[in-house]
Amino acid sequence: MTDTSAWKALEEHAATMRHVHLKELFQQDPNRFQTYSMRNEQLLLDFSKQRITPETQSLLKTLADTCQLDTWKSRLLSGDAINTSENRPALHTALRQPQGSELLLDGHNIVDDVQANLAHMSDIVNRIHSGQWRGYSGLPIDTIVNIGVGGSDLGPYMSCRALSDAQLASGKKLNVHFVSSMDGSQIADLLDTLLPTSTLFILSSKSFTTIDTLSNANTAREWLRNASGASDDILNRRHFIGVSANAPKMTEWGIPENSQLNFWDWTGGRYSMWSAIGLPIALRIGMSRFKEMLAGAHAMDEHFRTAPFESNLPTQLGMIGVWNINFLDIHAHAILPYDGRLSHLPAYLEQLEMESDGKSVSRQGKEVDYRTCPIIWGEVGPNAQHAFYQLLHQGTESVMCDFIAPARRYHDTDNADLQQQHTLTLANCLAQSRILALGDSVLEDNESAPVHMRYRGNQPSTTVLMDELTPFSFGQLISLYEHKTFVQSVIWDINPFDQWGVELGKKMATNLLKPLMKETDGADLDGSSKGLLDTIHSLQEVNA
Ligand code: F6P
Questions:
Q1: Strands, DSSP E only, in 325-460?
Q2: Using a 6 Å cutoff on CB, does residue 151 contact ligand 1?
Q3: N or C: lower Cβ tally within 10 Å for the chain?
Q4: Edge-to-edge strand order for the sheet containing 143-147?
Q5: Distance of alpha carbon 206 from alpha carbon 115, whole angstroms
Q6: Which residues pair with 83 in a beta bridge?
């Protein structure tokens, strides 16, 4: 990669661009917004505060062509087995293809399977919303607890919060909770507040072998056993739904077949919120609004498939990221939503991008000699302003930022106070990206300020402006980031759909259970682990 003429040309260009400040770029071309902003449906992306010129874009296009981005895109969308280490396709886009369309996998139209699955999901949602689904005592279900972790948690968790305004009629409203952490602290606190008679647990796990999820699920069932005195058969039928790609494991745990929602091994965990893993979202906002979210994601898929390089939102987002990371040496990326409903977006993108592109071995099995996924983190923007923006403005790290905000909010209410709060939030969003880009040159007497009060600027950012936050625009937004992640994986020549880096930790934890439980002495451990183990044992003895 680094030997290609496309890469070398970008390196040469970067040698100049590294010394160019964003304020100069805006002086040279005050119409940068017109040049570098682009829209698709309900999203507008403004790249004008990125350190790019027309030359940068043309060189990035050559790099994308060199890496055969268009071919890879077609391979992804047509269901080629591009997840080579697991020998399967990555077909999350099929999950949002409309009814009646076609995507053949081994000669079989998987869109029909997806639609059948949605129908099963819809039936379950209806039975719960209508009060037909009853707990062991005959009371209807009014509380849902999703038990899952990683991709079986973060997507539905984020979406339920993001779409909290897409409420159902009051009779159908459900309390929806999420439990993910293996240490039991979430479930223990939550169970104290719930009624066993009307609580339903969704066990979400693609593999149905994740110990975090299974241990929380067992704790939940034990709680129901103790509270109800009912048989496991009744509890499993009335209080548990399983969502997994591993039906035999769901059955083994005790989930009856008609309470099992399946999905497929071609849906990666972190790409699964569009499948039955999204059941909590559908329960929260209703099936038709869930489908609006799928439609938004599909619109972005189509845009990704058809729009030319220059105006293709995910492609531009991905390629400009490559420019920042590999050529401007920026290795930190902050996700900054200016809307509290998107508070879980940073955590979601941390998994999506870092689990997908946090790799250092190419598709050919060679160590790469260039950077891949940067450190991604984030927080609701206005809160982060009072926490880590100091570093963004005056620290030593170059950081690229994504500002994400809806233009309209509360416009359909007559609450002037909330409308004012939204305006204030937008003012902060625009102010921060402006200062990050231009520094204190936005002030007239900036140069007279003492050095510790100066703002150097030149931190690049993209602003993602949503018309408003709806299921449709939200679907577009998440699909945008999925495809951006894919684009970068193509340039970096890595497989974004596996996650072998998480496996050894699981194995090692199982191995460490034995010495922790004093079944072995742990003599074979390294000095640090042995020291910690002994200290834990002695502290546990004191407490006993
Ligand atoms: O350990 C990482 C991981 O496999 C993620 O990729 C996945 O989203 C998460 O664990 C949960 O896995 P599962 O859905 O199989 O429980």
A1: 332-337, 375-378, 400-408
A2: yes
A3: C
A4: 175-179, 143-147, 199-204, 240-244, 260-262
A5: 19
A6: 88
Give the model confidence (pLDDT) of 100-155 as tens digits.
999 999 999 999 999 999 999 999 999 999 999 999 999 999 999 999 999 999 99
Q: Whose CA is closest to atom 10 on ligand 1?
A: 150
At residue 249, the 3 state secondary structure works out as: helix
Main-chain phi, psi angles of 435, to 5 degrees: -70, -40
260-262 and 332-337 beta bridge pairing? unpaired
Residue closest by Cα to atom 2 of ligand 1: 502
At 79, which amino acid appears? G
Is the entire prediction scored with pTM above 0.85? yes
- For residue 179, the cross-strand partners are 147
Measured CA distances, 228 to 187, 196, 236, 534 (Å)? 18, 8, 12, 41
Two tokens, residue 530? 């042995």
Q: How far is the CA of 221 from the centre of ligand 1 (A)?
A: 22
Do 261 and 279 form a contact (C-beta atoms < 8 A)? yes
In angstroms, what CA-CA distances link 324 with 49, 152, 170, 332, 457? 12, 31, 47, 10, 15
State mean pLDDT over 483-506: 97
Residue 58 CA, ligand 1 centroid: distance in Å: 39
Report the C-alpha gap between 202 and 200 in whole angstroms: 7
Among 214, 502, 504, say which to mutate for ligand 1: greatest number of ligand atoms within 8 Å of CB: 502
Expressed in angstroms and rounded, the spacing between residue 194 Cα and the centre of ligand 1 is 27
* C-alpha 377 – ligand 1 centre gap (Å): 20
Residue 499 Cα: closest atom of ligand 1: 6
The pLDDT tens digits for 223-242 are 999 999 999 999 999 999 99
Q: How far out from the chain centre does Cα 41 lie?
A: 21
Q: Is 502 in the pocket of ligand 1 (CB under 6 A)?
A: yes
**Residue nearest to ligand 1 atom 9, measured at CA:** 150
Tell the residue nearest (CA) to atom 16 of ligand 1. 205
